[in-house]
Amino acid sequence: MLNHVIVGHGTPLLILHGVRLDHRHMMESLEPVFETLGGWQRVYVDLPGHGASPPQGTIRLMDDVLDALVTFADALLPGQRFGVIGESRGSYLASGMANRRPELVLGLAPGRAGWRAGQRSRTAASS
Question: What is the pTM of this model?
Answer without folding.
Answer: 0.86
